[in-house]
Amino acid sequence: MVTSEWTLAEARPLFSMLEHPRPGHGILGVSDPDVHLRSGRWSMFLGAFTTRFVVRIVEARLPAGAKVSDDSWHLVTGRRRRAVELGAPPDRRAWDAAGMHTPSYAVGRAEGETVERIYYAGRRSQKITGPESRYAIGCLEHRDGAWRRRPGPVLTGDAARPSVLEPFVVHTDGRWRMWFLSAIGETGRGEWPDYELRYTESDDGVRWEAPERFASVEEGFFDNTVVRDGASWRMVLARGTNLYGTEPFPPQGLWSTEAAASPAGRPSWSPVQRLLDTDAAAEDWYAAGVCGPAVVTDGDALHVFATGTHAQTSWWRATARGLRHGRRPPAPAPYFLTTGRFTFRRARAR
């Protein structure tokens, strides 16, 4: 922690691939939490890696009346107690059938009515990393009590940077506003990140204007979240975590900035400050960095929900350690993710 304004008060794992608690309900791991108060109850939308080895969007909820720091999140389940997949593609030929992740819930006006949407990153190929791992941004709409998928993407990449992913969307002052990652592809083993954040606006949340650069490749930010904080707005940014233990690698953690007026392009935001340094004194479950932040403000508390990458460990070592503690082996994976809550407290003036 290197800013004078906030101090980390608590870091709590909520859903872990490796340790306790595991998500269960047909889910091996979750990431990229998006937290909102919806109909008087806290909801968390997540990207989930299922036991069918596909990535889909699911929802977790707190009990009615619970505070956002309660931590007793439970996945919404359906038949056979499996997590309900929201707006899953109809078949393997769909443009996003290879995976859906990084949900961003937003409420706004379109075509004269109020709509609820979940924007997400959809994978267009079976390739996970590299230039062939094509991603685009899609959208679910809540209609007639169910999340329904729009058949095509609402935003795609360009020739130089063919993938767009990690969307974050808000609707304010009559405009839909999106920040997203523009990339050649997801970073693979031994590769240095090549990430550029961009910003765009829309009248209807479907047809988007030509984007502008928000953060440079040199800054290296992977994704962000935006929340109203009193009369102003707060943004928290993260870099892509060090999934494969690549050395050297850019510093990891969280950063924060504020905007006094409507959130928009980079000129409307204050200089970025470091909020969390995960390269120093981090717990194992987020020692390789955090990503996918969501923020809830609560007086002098700042609750950041995010996904941490575990310090490098082999599956065999993790399995042996778990068995000694009576836990089932984790799913074989090149890395292990844990989604948790980080609570920061505003430092008091001396």
Structure description:
The chain is mainly β and 350 residues long. It has one domain: Glycosyl hydrolase domain, family 43 (Tachylectin-2, Chain A, 5 Propeller), CATH 2.115.10.20. 3% of the residues lie in helices and 47% in strands. It has one helix and 20 strands. The chain has one helix at 315-324, and strands spanning 6-16, 27-38, 41-50, 55-61, 74-75, 100-110, 113-123, 135-143, 146-149, 163-172, 175-183, 195-202, 212-215, 221-229, 232-239, 253-259, 273-277, 290-298, 301-309, 337-346. A hairpin with a 2-residue loop joins strand 14 and strand 15. The protein is globular. The two termini are 18 Å apart.
Please supply descriptive tags for the structure shown above.
single chain, 350 residues, mainly beta, Tachylectin-2, Chain A, four-stranded antiparallel sheet, 1 helix, globular
